[in-house]
Amino acid sequence: MKSICVYCGSSPDADPAFLSLARRFGRGLAERGHQLVFGGVGLGLMGAVADGALSAGGRVVGIIPKALLEMEVAHPHLAELHVVDDMHQRKRMMAERADGFVVLPGGCGTLDEFFEIFTWAQLGFHEKPVAILNGNDYYEPMLAMMRSMVRHGFLKEVHFDMLIVDANHDALLQRMSEFVPPRVSKWNRGPG
């Protein structure tokens, strides 16, 4: 993997523990030679992950909708900043530029991005790893809901199992490098 797309929150009110997690993760990405692709915002965890990567000499690519650029929230020190018309273009360009996806803590926008890219993997639209950096067990309630989806037949266990979840960023990136996508259609009947 060369380019890792990171989805995370941009709220300036984010928990300081998560800001630290994002900075460490960005730094770890750069130290492993990965390029960071992210939403281009210089605030919250988005800004922290970019700052972390930049502090280690990493290459950082931002993709931001015009409306957010006009609010002057773009990160000022990126190798590339692509300005797009809307959120749909942003998500598509981020997906196209990435070899894998990592979700850090965030709010509704982060969940939107995660579920879209995970659904695309489930449907076979891409075969790239999708991972959650689950610092302080932030995503445990969502993962419990997804386990409920498996129990009730709305999500195949093999698809749930393709999701890489770890609280340690080095272990997470290692598991992503070893990822092999499942070859099971969403519509096959039966378990798995």
The total beta strand count reads 7
SSE ordering: EHEHEHEHEHEHHEH
Under the CATH scheme, the architecture of the domain at 3-130 is 3-Layer(aba) Sandwich
CATH-defined topology of the domain at 3-130: Rossmann fold
Main beta sheet: strand number and arrangement?
7 strands, parallel
Mean pLDDT: 94
List keywords for this structure.
192 residues; alpha/beta
Describe the protein's architecture and organization:
With 192 residues, the chain is of the alpha/beta class. It contains eight helices and seven strands, in the order βαβαβαβαβαβααβα. It has a domain of 128 residues: Rossmann fold (3-Layer(aba) Sandwich). The protein is 44% helix and 16% strand. It has a seven-stranded parallel beta sheet with strand order 4-3-2-1-5-6-7, with helices on both faces. β3, α3 and β4 form a beta-alpha-beta unit. The two termini are 27 Å apart. The mean pLDDT is 94.
What's the topology here?
Blueprint lengths: L2 E5 L8 H16 L3 E4 L5 H12 L4 E6 H5 L9 E5 L2 H11 L2 E4 L4 H15 L7 E4 L6 H12 L5 H5 L2 E3 L2 H9 L15
Parallel strand pairs: 1-2, 1-5, 2-3, 3-4, 5-6, 6-7
Short structural summary:
With about 190 residues, the chain is of the alpha/beta class.
